[in-house]
Specification:
There is one protein chain. This protein is an alpha/beta fold. It is built from eleven helices and ten strands. The chain has a single domain, classed as Alpha-Beta Barrel (TIM Barrel).
């Protein structure tokens, strides 16, 4: 029997198409589409493109924030600023670069102003890769103390961390100081299944996964592909990532409207991948890993 469709995301029943329950997480207090949209560098994506994605069911937006320097905004900030009454139905996640309380106050004020909002659903501490960084963050006068105060007053709803270091990310998760972990995970890079997911699931922490396409490598053939193998398009790789129950949201970072439209085909999924399809994707992931050079 096919599962019933999830109710439309949002208060207005006609606002967006209904999504299959496989595509919906309730880790953020209300129904959220498990395919998120991320800003990354300079792209051809426009505010209307972002709003179009929201209209089709996406309601998790990850903005690169000010972590890599000042910005006057982009398509994502313009879209968020225009949401009006719809703001409460969208999870806005921003990367956060500050490590001390003084810098955090300035950065958070700028983030809120640039996004045109008075609160942030998720702030993720940007690329915390070494224990000494975490020590600075959690020390008296560190950014975490400031963000915890901001969380108490409702300006920040959840505090997360972004890292490439799986075991260290799990260690930070165990501290009890975080509400979310953002980690790299894809068919060629599956170490999080061993190092992270059992920890986050036991703690009830949502995981947001990035680089689902392995920087495009999963979209290219390898010398070891079997005869007749056709490399799947991006929607299949996002579904592969979402097959993992520990992953609340996987991020797509399209560079153009056509890439966005292709990525949004994920929303047509009628459920999880079948075993044979999943195995074929996993096999290609292993081949990409073999030929991609030295990475963990």
């Amino acid at each position: 029997m096919r599962a019933a469709r999830e109710a439309p995301i949002g208060d207005d029943p006609g606002a967006v198409p209904a999504l299959h329950p496989f595509l919906v997480t309730r880790a953020f207090g209300f129904p959220v589409c498990r395919l998120g949209l991320a800003s990354y560098g300079q792209t051809a994506i426009t505010p209307d493109d972002v709003l179009s994605a929201l209209g089709r069911g996406v309601n998790f937006l990850n903005w690169q924030g000010l972590a890599e320097g000042p910005t006057c905004g982009d398509a994502f900030t313009a879209a968020v600023a225009s949401l009006g009454a719809g703001r409460g139905r969208v999870v806005v996640c921003a990367q956060f670069g500050a490590r001390g309380a003084a810098d955090a106050a300035t950065e958070l004020k700028s983030v809120l102003a640039t996004l045109g909002t008075d609160y942030i659903d998720v702030l993720t501490l940007y690329y915390v890769e070494k224990p000494e960084e975490w020590e600075e963050i959690t020390a008296p006068g560190g950014v975490l103390q400031y963000l915890q105060d901001a969380k108490r007053d409702g300006t920040v709803r959840r505090i997360g961390v972004t890292s490439h270091q799986r075991k260290f990310a799990a260690q930070m998760a165990r501290s009890g100081l975080l509400d979310l972990v953002m980690i790299r995970y894809n068919a060629a890079h599956r170490g999080a299944e061993r190092d992270v997911f059992s920890v986050t699931e036991s703690l009830g922490l949502p995981v947001v996964a990035y680089t689902a396409l392995r920087w495009g490598a999963l979209l290219r053939p390898t010398p070891d592909d079997p005869p007749g193998f056709s490399v799947p398009r991006p929607p299949a790789w996002y579904q592969f990532t979402l097959q993992q129950p520990a992953v609340a949201v996987t991020l797509a970072a399209p560079q153009t409207r056509s890439e966005l439209d292709e990525d949004l085909r994920v929303l047509e999924a009628a459920g999880p991948l079948g075993e044979e399809v999943y195995a074929a994707l996993a096999g290609h992931g292993e081949r990409v890993r073999k030929h991609a050079g030295n990475f963990r």
